[in-house]
Amino acid sequence: MEDDRHWSLESLNKAYQQGYMAGLTGQPGHRHNHSAEVLVAAWEAGWDDGQEQYQLHQHKIA
Fold this sequence. Notes:
By secondary structure, the protein is mainly α. Helices cover 66% and strands 0% of the residues. InterPro entries: Ribosome_modulation_factor, RMF_sf.
């Protein structure tokens, strides 16, 4: 189990990128696998950004 005291810039970036790809591909926003709050926040920030791009793309092709 992850602990809020054990994260790195690399793990934050990885969580963000995973969230971004999930949002970009239209996956639900609750599919992260992190227990550390800071990594969850990074994943969710990435998902928000990816979801925004997904929505823009969907609007363009509609």
